[in-house]
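Structure (tokenized):
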């Protein structure tokens, strides 16, 4: 399974359409294979991000907020979308590989972020 997470600094990007950096990881039997790789996009664009997701043959997308049209497009392409995720992308990656990441989840590390800001 190939997983793509939209990221901003150490966190899941709050908006799909403003994402300019993604993390791509391979997962098998609840384990991450190799080192996840980071891809920097030339500019934030939902259309380019969807094209990248298709090109990379991603099975699961983890993101913050996403417009309904892009969500429906990805679902139509048979890609699982776990949206409205809040918190550090490292925690989200562990949760999705463990099989317990759900849409709308606020990860424990999200509380630390509000203390830092």
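Design, position by position:
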């Amino acid at each position: 399974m190939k997983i793509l997470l939209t990221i901003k600094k150490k966190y899941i990007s709050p908006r799909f359409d403003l994402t300019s950096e993604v993390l791509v990881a391979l997962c098998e039997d609840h384990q991450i294979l190799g080192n996840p790789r980071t891809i920097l996009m030339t500019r934030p664009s939902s259309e380019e991000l969807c094209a990248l997701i298709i090109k990379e043959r991603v099975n699961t997308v983890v993101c913050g907020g996403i417009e309904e049209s892009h969500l429906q497009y990805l679902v139509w392409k048979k890609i699982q979308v776990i949206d409205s995720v809040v918190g550090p992308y490292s925690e989200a990656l562990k949760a999705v590989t463990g099989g317990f990441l759900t849409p709308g989840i606020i990860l424990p590390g999200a509380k630390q972020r509000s203390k830092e800001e």
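Reviewer-requested clarification: The chain has a mean pLDDT of 93. The domain at 2-116 is CATH 3.30.420.130 (Nucleotidyltransferase; domain 5).
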